[in-house]
Prior knowledge:
By secondary structure, the chain is of the alpha/beta class. It contains eleven helices and eleven strands. The chain folds into two domains: about 10-135 and about 305-330, Aspartate/ornithine carbamoyltransferase (Rossmann fold), CATH 3.40.50; about 135-300, Rossmann fold, CATH 3.40.50.1370. The chain is about 35% helix and about 15% strand. The strands form three sheets. A five-stranded parallel sheet has the order 8-7-6-9-10, covered by helices on one side. It has a four-stranded parallel sheet with strand order 3-2-4-5, sandwiched between helices. The protein has a two-stranded antiparallel sheet with strand order 1-11. The radius of gyration is 20 Å and the shape is globular. The two termini are about 35 Å apart. Bound molecules: N-carbamoyl-L-aspartate (NCD). N-carbamoyl-L-aspartate binds near residues 58, 173 and 274. It comes from Shewanella salipaludis. It holds the Pfam family OTCace. This is Aspartate carbamoyltransferase.
Amino acid sequence: MTQFEGSHILSVNQLDLDAIHTIFNVANRMTPYALREKRTKVLEGAILGNLFFEPSTRTRVSFGCAFNLLGGHVRETTGMASSSLSKGESLYDTARVLSTYSDVIAMRHPEAYSVKEFAEGSRVPVINGGDGANEHPTQALLDLFTIQKELGFAGRGVDGMHIAMVGDLKHGRTVHSLSRLLCMHKNISFTLISPGELAMPDYVLDDIANAGHRVTITDQLEGNLHQADILYLTRIQEERFPSQDEANKYRGKFRLNQSIYTQHCKSNTVIMHPLPRDSRAQANELDNDLNSHPNLAIFRQADNGLLIRMALFALTLGVDTQLEKYECPVNWYSRKADR
Ligand code: NCD
């Protein structure tokens, strides 16, 4: 059984199915607070150090809002240039100092394993918000949570499902972490669709093979989607390429739109994307013409991110059993609670 209280969350490899189950149970209990039906002040007085050394919208803001929704304060640092890392300070020193100012830290950084290195200097739990092309454990958890819910609506489960992952599978940390969480389940079929140069790294393929799941690897989108229960699209991770010209070679290679979806997917295939989708004309991997499609789960994914991050804060700070004790009413007009 994973010990959450006081622990870092750095990699999906530190989790097992029991731990995931615990996180999802707590996440479900966060729903009324996220919908502003009621409040909890369980983390009143606590401080989150939200350190984002790489661009982010959803992950950074949802970590911050998740902490606020539990009653805590958020102290944010964004960008290398505004921190002493740009003066040559080590991750260890930064961690030693900032961890005395905070009760928990969420961190994103462009280098693989940097968040782990930072955590070694931290006196408080550190949650990995993405370390280079390596891992994105909280995204993978919210993705799996979304898959469970979406398939659950149709009476299906994760075991036995078929997922097609499309795009930059080499640099996409979300697909690396999600694949490993899926490996913990039974009888998964993976169809991995990418240009050959952007294929899923061998270490992830080894994990899939060692767990006995089925894998098809291809560089063709059409014709390889018809069995997918989940279609997980990704953006070309341009920031990981040596130049924009290099990234441009792959932009727009795979595009999903209404017509391709209707022609090549099952009618109940769920469409996912960690976002941001690259909506520029030369990329447009997920067309706006699917925006009102009921199987488009991308915004439900983002909503679920709030619940998962609230759960992780409650668990790592050891307050998951006290949420209700610190409840209070919402005093303002709340559109969300009207839903
Ligand atoms: C992803 C990331 O940062 O890895 N975004 C996110 O956190 N939702 C995917 C991406 O940037 O393409």
